[in-house]
């Protein structure tokens, strides 16, 4: 499974916002520069994330983007699902009727476990957790 650019870049953008949650709003060009994302593409991502209720925009000279909710109340799986869609490893995991072997297929059980693991990892993290882990790594590398 390979994540889309939309998911990778969108996640980086919201993590950037979470990292600066206590500060003023971040302008698109600042996020784009820090994350190596084109402003035009980032505009599209932010529009999607704004529509889903993860970010909000603030107008004016000191405006930009902020998280719509506190970082500790935004689950990583929610963002992932917004950007990537549902985690589906095989058609039969969503619909057992898709394959006549689904009831006793050992491979299907593997794909179901993979989906559960992905959901478990992403569902166990908030944006605040991710920022905290990133800050811990920054401290380690500064030594």
Please render the helix and strand layout as text:
Layout (H helix, E strand, L loop, with lengths): L4 H15 L8 H8 L3 H13 L3 E4 L5 E4 L8 H9 L6 H4 L11 H18 L3 H16 L1
Antiparallel strand pairs: 1-2
Q: Order of helices and strands, N to C?
A: HHHEEHHHH
Rg over C-alpha atoms, rounded to the nearest angstrom: 18 Å
CATH topology, what is it called? Arc Repressor Mutant, subunit A
* Beta-strand percent range: 5-15%
The structural domain count equals 1
The CATH homologous superfamily is named: Winged helix-like DNA-binding domain superfamily/Winged helix DNA-binding domain
How many helices? 7
Shape verdict: elongated
Summarize the main sheet.
2 strands, antiparallel
The end-to-end distance, rounded to whole angstroms, is 36 Å
Number-wise, the strands total 2
Report the mean per-residue pLDDT as an integer. 89
Segments where pLDDT lies below 50 for 5+ residues?
Answer: none
Strand adjacency order, main sheet: 1-2
Features:
elongated; mainly alpha; 2 strands; 143 residues; two-stranded antiparallel sheet; 58% helix; Arc Repressor Mutant, subunit A
């Amino acid at each position: 499974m390979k994540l889309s650019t939309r998911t990778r870049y969108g996640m980086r953008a919201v993590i950037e916002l979470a990292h600066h949650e206590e500060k003023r709003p971040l302008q698109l060009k600042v996020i784009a520069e820090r994350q190596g994302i084109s402003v035009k593409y980032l505009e599209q991502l932010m529009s999607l994330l704004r529509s889903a209720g993860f970010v909000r925009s603030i107008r004016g000279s000191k405006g930009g983007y902020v998280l719509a909710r506190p970082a500790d109340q935004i689950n990583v799986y929610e963002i992932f699902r917004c950007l990537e869609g549902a985690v589906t490893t095989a058609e039969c995991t969503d619909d057992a009727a898709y394959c006549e072997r689904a009831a006793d297929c050992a491979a299907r059980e593997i794909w179901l476990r993979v989906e559960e693991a992905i959901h478990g990892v992403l569902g166990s993290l908030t944006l605040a957790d991710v920022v905290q882990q990133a800050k811990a790594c920054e401290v380690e590398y500064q030594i």
